[in-house]
Queue: 3 jobs
Job 1
Amino acid sequence: MSAESTDEQTPDEQAPDQFTALFTTSAGEFKIQVTRNWAPHGADRFYALVTQGYYDQQRFFRVVPGFVVQWGMSGDPELTSEWQRKRIPDDEVSQSNTRGRVTFAATSLPGSRTTQLFVNLSDNTNLDGMGFAPFGEVVEGMEIVDSINAEYREAPDQGEIGLRGNEYLNDHFPNLDHIITAKIAD
C-alpha cells in the first residue's frame, strides 16, 4: 500500500432520516428499515453502499446460528480494497443489538468500521457495551435471514476473500447463499 492510500475516516453523503433497503438473495427477499438518528454515520455509509450497488453479488460469508449473519466484502478484490480504506467514525450506541437489528462490524480499534455488517439472529445485547451501534432492523423477511446457509459457519477466511473475492468463495464454499441485488425500496 502506498503512502497515498492510507486509511482515513471518510464521511458519506447524508442519508434520508428513514429509508428501507430491499435485499434480493438466493434464499429469498428481506427488507432493512434504517432510522438515521439511531447511528448516523452507519446509516449514511449503508445508504452509500446500497445506492452504489456495492452489496450486489456478495456472499454471506459468516453465518453463526443463534448469533449473526455477516456480509460486506465485495466479490471484486479491488473494490473491497478501495472501500477498506474508507473508515467511518464510531456512532454512540442508542439502540440495543436485539434480534433483527443490523449493525456494522468492527475491530476493537476506534473508527474501524468500513463495509461489513451483520444481522443479529438473537438478542446479542452484550455487543452494546462493546460499541456496536445498530442503525436499522429487518422489518420483513426475518425468516429468510434465519434460513441463510450456515454450513460453513466462520470457515471462510476474510484475508482470502480480500485477495480473491468470489473466486475464492465459489471454489471453497460453493453453497454460500448470496445477495443478488440490494437497492433502496420505493
Job 2
Amino acid sequence: FFLFKLGEPPRLGKWLPALAWGISGGAAILALDWLFSWLSTLAGLKVGLNPDFIPRARNEWIGWAITLPFVAVGEELFFRGLLPALYRAVNAPAGVSLVLACALFGLIHFGEGLAAPFIAALLALVFFFLKNKSGGLLAPIIAHLLVDAAGLILTAHGK
C-alpha cells in the first residue's frame, strides 16, 4: 500500500525515491512556511499553531514524539489513500475528488487558527503531488511528519 501494489512483493528500490521525495517535499514546504510566516509578520498578521497545542513539559514532548508519526500515517492513509479510492469507486471526476479531499483536510485543521484550513488545504495539494511522483504514500507521510515536527518545534521556540 505504501510502496507497492497489492499482490506484488515489496521492492527495496522504491524506498530510496520515496525517501528522497518525502524529505525534499518536506523541506520545500518548510521553506514556503518560513516565507509565509515572514510575510505574515511583515503584514502584522498572527499565524501559527494554537498555543494550547505547544508542549511545555518533558512528558508532553514525549507524548508528541509518539503521537506525530501516528498523525502523519493516519492522515495520509485516509486523505491520500482511502478518500481518493472511495471517490474513484463512485466514479467522481479526478478534479472533484482532489478538491474534496483537500477541502476536508483543511477543515480538520480548523481548530489550529483561522488561516490553518487554507494552509492545510494547500499542503494537501503538495502531499498529493508527492504521492503521485513517488508512486506511494511513504513520501507524503515523511513530508507530513517533517512539517508537523518542525512546526511544533519552531512554534515552541517562538520562531
Job 3
Amino acid sequence: MAHKDYTRVFVVVRAAQLSDWLGMISASYGAVVYRFCHWRSCLRRLRDAACDVLIVDSDVTGAKTCHFIAQARRTWPWLSCIVLVDKGAVGRAVAIMKAGATDCLEKPGDPEPLLAAVEQGLRRTAAGASLTATQLSVLHLIVAGRTNKDIAERLGRSVRTVETHRRSIFRKLGFRTSLEVMKWAMSAGFYGSPGLVSDEVSNIPCD
C-alpha cells in the first residue's frame, strides 16, 4: 500500500443516521472519512488512492454489492471491507462474504458493532500491508499450494528460512494454518501487491 501519514476510511452510504457514527470513527481512530454516494465514484477513487477500511451500505450498492466488493479487493488486496445489510438478510450476507467482504453487519441500532469492526479492519489492513517483498513472494506460492521445499527451491532460500517467513506471514495475518491463509487470499482476490499510487485525495461530495 502506498505510504501515507493518516488513516483513510471510504464510506458508500446515504443514510443520515450514520453521520454521527462516521464522526466517531474519525475521532476514535484519527481517520479521514471520505463519503461517496455511488459505488462507481468510490471505485474510481480506489484505483488511484490507498484506503484502509471500506464501509458499504448494501442498500446503496444494491445488486452490484458483490461486484463492487470483489473489484475493490482486487485493487487493494489488504483492504478491509465492512458491508451493512438489513436485519435478517442472511442469504445476502453470505453472498457478500463470498465476494470478499471481511465483515458483514446488520444495520446497527448503536455504533459499537461498527466501531469494533472498523478497529479490527484497521489491524487487518496494517498486518497485510506490513508483509515484506519476500513474504509476499512466499504468500504467492503458499496460495499456489507449494510446499516449503518447493518454495525454497523457487526462491533460492533454505527450507528453514521459508518456514520462518511462513510463520511470520501467519502471525501478521492472524491465521494458524495454510488452509486459512488460502481461503482468505482467494476471497480477497489476492494476486500481488498493488503499485504505488498518488497520496492526493479529494473528498467526493454527496448529491
